[in-house]
Each structure stands twice: as structure tokens, then as C-alpha cells.
User: Fold this.
Amino acid sequence: MLRTVYILLLDLHPGHFRQRFGAEMLNLFEDASGLRQPILLIGDGLLSLVRQWIFRSEFRRPLATQWVHHLAESAPQFRTLDQYAPQGSAVLSGVGLAAVTFGLFAALIGYGVHEQRLLVGARYPSPRLVPVARSPFEAADLNTAIKVAPPPEDPLRGIAAVYFKIIRALNVLDSDKDLVISPWEIFTAPAALRKLDIDHDGKLSAEELGFSMGSNSTPKEIVERARLAFMRENPVLAALDADHDGEVSTAEIANSFRSLKTLDRNGDGSLTPDELIPDQQNVKAAMLFMTLDSNGDGLISREERESQEEPSLRGLLQSADRITMVS
Amino acid sequence: MKDSVDEFTPLAPARLHILLALAGESLHGYGIMQEVLRQTESRYKLGPGTLYDNLQRLMKQKLVEEVAGLPEEENSRRRYYRLTSLGRGVLAAEVARLEGVIKTARTHLKPLQPRRA
Assistant:
């Protein structure tokens, strides 16, 4: 161990000293016995190291000289007959020539022959490819304008935006407000719908789902009929109110994610506005039926048919097959 | 010659002891260290770093030179050193200088004679 340290110390000495005396110093170290003597020799080596590097510079050859000396010993040399040393003007001329050569190469690389870069998508009268200038700052000179047309507006989106606000069930179901009930929003529908249970009775009434008459003076039976119509006309409420009793029970809330899936007509997993907004023809028919069904029993009786003042409407009801008439 | 000798004096203690050790015969490094120990009765001990640093300078000053080793030690790593004529002259000059110093010292260090009353 101590010998290794001493060898390391010798290695750190200047080359000329190490080569001249290193072997002898190591020989003396190896002759040292015990522990004290090697340690003293290591201290002596440290002092020698400092002395050689700081106070014995006159013995060190310059690095370049050492390198030249090494080359002289190991590499072949070109020999000349004359002792030649270039003049200062010749050196300056060489530097200038090298700079000019470098500049020429740089110019050739930068502006010389290179592959043409092509702009894809340039609209020119002829279908030729247009070379593009290398510098990006020159791109502004191109007479090509690229306009990206906005995506076509879905006419249903405007209606859906209003509709989603009116039908509060849809408002809470559409948590990301993109007017689409995603599969995840369908899956989390029970939790979302429970937020609408304001009176905490475990059920959702038509009012909690968005129904409003706007006036307290409306007769109670009319309000009830309107409430039922509200629950039937809106597909999402009709799906949630599976038993069509005019309210969404606790069980129906729990089963809401299954009920909502029945509205997915295209089977893409999401409910889009066209699957949620009621068909306008159905709305009009429902409004007409509600007008004809004056007693609100869900049936148009003979008396109700005969009571219509409009003859064409009476004729229509007589010929209608879809409407159940009670004599 | 005297001027060239005087430029090397006074000698540092280590160099003086090395030159004194080499005054008798050619020695290798370890031999020089042992001879210095013997001459100084083990009161002055040279380390290898000090020894070879001074040998390096003495050889550059042409006071010491390297000589061929003994025939029986041809394969040894040891190198032998000896005094040059210049080195011997420098050593003689240094000894003379020291003799002067000692003489002067003895003169000044005579015990004071008590004055008669």
C-alpha cells in the first residue's frame, strides 16, 4: 500500500527527474524497513514533489520541446538542406489565403448547388412543383395563401345548447358541456342525477328535471297534464321515467345508465343532440293531442272530437287510425 | 579557477555533506546516505528526495558526475556518482572557508580572562 503511494508520488514528479532518479528512489524505499521509515520517505517524497515543480523549473524542458523531442525519437522527419524559417509576411499571406479559401467553401455550401426544396400544397394555375427559397424570411414573398375553412356548423348545436339548459337532467349529465353525453357521462349518470334531488326525497320530479309552467294561476289538472307531457316528450326524460308515472324514482335513478343507453340509436356509445332533442313532428303531434284531450285522460273521446269547431280537424280525427277514440 | 570555485560557495549543508561523502570514493545513492550518517554520527539524515534533488543540481554544476557501476552490479538499478575535479576544488574551498569560520569563531569564543584587581 505504502509502496503504491510512493510510486504514485514518483509518477507525479517531472518526467526528467522521474526518469533519471525514480528507479533509485524506489529502490531506496524498498530497502526501508518497519512502518516509520516508509512513512518518513513518503513525506520526503512529498517535499521533493513540491520542490521539483516549484523551484526546479530550470530542469524542465518546455512542453513543445519535449513533444518535438519525442517526435524526433519516434517519427520519421523531413530533412532539408537549408535552415529555413518562414518570414512574417509569408505567414500573414498564408493566414489570408486560408481565410479566403474557408470563405469560398462556406459560400459554396451555403448558396451553391443544393437540392431544391418543394412546397407541398401551393396553389398555382399549373400543377407544377414550386421551388422554395432557402431562407425562411423569404417565405413571405410567396403568393400562396392558405385558408382553413371553419368546420361546418351543426344546425342542431344551437338548439341543443338551449335545450340542454332547459332540461336540467341533460345539463347535469353533460359535465364537460360539449353537448354530447359521453360513455363516461352515461356511466356516471346516477351520481349526476342525484344532484338534482333538491328536496332529498330520493326521487326526481318534473320540476327538479326542468319543468316549469311560469304561472301559478294555471289550473292544477292542466299543470299535471303539462308535467306528464314534459316527461313524455323529451326523450331523455322519457327514457329515465321508465314506468311513465311522471317522475324518476330512486330505482330509476340507479338504473339510469341503462335507460340512457336505449337512446343510443347509432350505437356509438355516446348520446348526440340528434338522439336527445325531440322530433319536432312528435312535439307538434303531442301538443295537438294535449289540446284535443281536454280532460287529460290520455284519450280523445267522441265528445272531445265532436266539440272541435274546425271541420277539417274533425274529419282528420275520424279518419285517423292511430288515435284511439272512445265512443 | 579560484573565481569559478568561489561562485559555488558557500555550500548548503546537504550539498556539503554529499560532496564530503563522495570525497573518498564513488558511491551510489544509498551509499551516500549511509556515509553521511556515518560522518555526522547519525545527526544528519538525508532523504532520497533531498539527496537526488541535490545530486541533480550538483551534476548540472559539473561538481559531480555519474560513473559506471561495479562489474558485479551491472544489472543493478543503482548508479554511482563521484566528484569531478571542479567538485573537489569547490569542496576544498568550502572546507577552507569553514576553517576560517571556525578560526574566527574560536577567536571570538575564547573564555574571558578575569581581570586582576
